[in-house]
Amino acid sequence: MANQIRLTKWLAALLLAVFVFGLQGCDTGPKEQVVGFQGMTMGTTFSMKWVASSEDELAAVRTDAGKLLSQVNQQMSTYIDDSELSLLNQMPHGQVRSVSPELMQVLAEGQRISVLTGGAFDYTVGPLVNLWGFGPDGRITHAPEQAEIDSLKSRIGYGFVELDPQAQTVGKQGEQYVDLSAIAKGYGVDELARLLEARGIERYLVEIGGELRARGSKPNGESWKLAIETPTQGERSVQEIISLTTGGVATSGDYRNYFEEDGVRFSHTIDPRTARPITHRLASVTVIRPTCMEADALATALMVMGEEEGYNFALEHEIDAFFISKTDEGFATRFTPGFANYMN
After folding, report:
1. 182 is in an annotated binding site
2. According to its UniProt record, where is this protein mainly located (predicted)?
3. Do 249 and 295 touch, CB atoms closer than 8 A?
4. CA-CA distance, 41 to 232, in Å (whole number)?
5. Residues of the chain falling short of pLDDT 50
6. What's the topology of domain 93-172?
7. What tens digit of pLDDT does each residue of 102-138 get?
């Protein structure tokens, strides 16, 4: 019996020694942390965060990200006169122009979303965006006349842009003006994610202007926490917190970018189907999809559709979406069944 007790004590002491040695080994090794940086791109801010045991790659990732985002801007901005997209917009109708694989990818996804949403998303809406004062032509203080709106309707329609992905060429049937502002940021986010993954980084959160993509978890094992803002003017508050371990997130809203005339509020969100700013009570919609590019375009489409049409569309197509609508008492929220999986 005494031998048994001594053996038990010896085993306990051995296990304690192994446990303490293990703790000491963890303390001396490199600890995981969240590293990253912020910057400016596409007329807004961007940020990159990832989990690493050191900051060794920080400078190289910053340099690579700057080059990548500069390239995306040069390909897809309507604010740069000699960008690839601007040169495409300047091309006379009836001609065909070769484009980069990157621009073709975004144009093809835009066409797909346009068809899917029945034109609620339409990247040829640019002339109307400019007419209403929300494009590169500058702001306005007076709503355009109906005759001005009607004169542009013949230029609106994604079907007038002809894509040939095999030949990597684009043609226009008329004076179409392509505006990728509702999809290019999402594409840029996906490219930042690919940049990190190419370096073997699989736990990250990247963002451009509030559009995000996440993968993996933080060092403590928790998923990435993201805030959905309450669509109020003049202040910032959180409506909902969501948790994400994979996927892209995009939010579209009409509560920050608008102008008023004689008490009438004109949103920057233009419905391509009516050629006018939206007038319904949907204030913002957040979409989660596998890629941020798809989430970006779909968030715009659902925002155009409004609280009822948009919600029913999201249900039908199994899109995870969170809607915030204006009411006489404040705001009301609504979400599709799949979105509940991300809510805390």
Report:
1. yes
2. membrane
3. yes
4. 25
5. 1-26, 259, 262
6. T-fold (1.10.3980)
7. 999 999 999 999 999 999 999 999 888 888 777 666 6
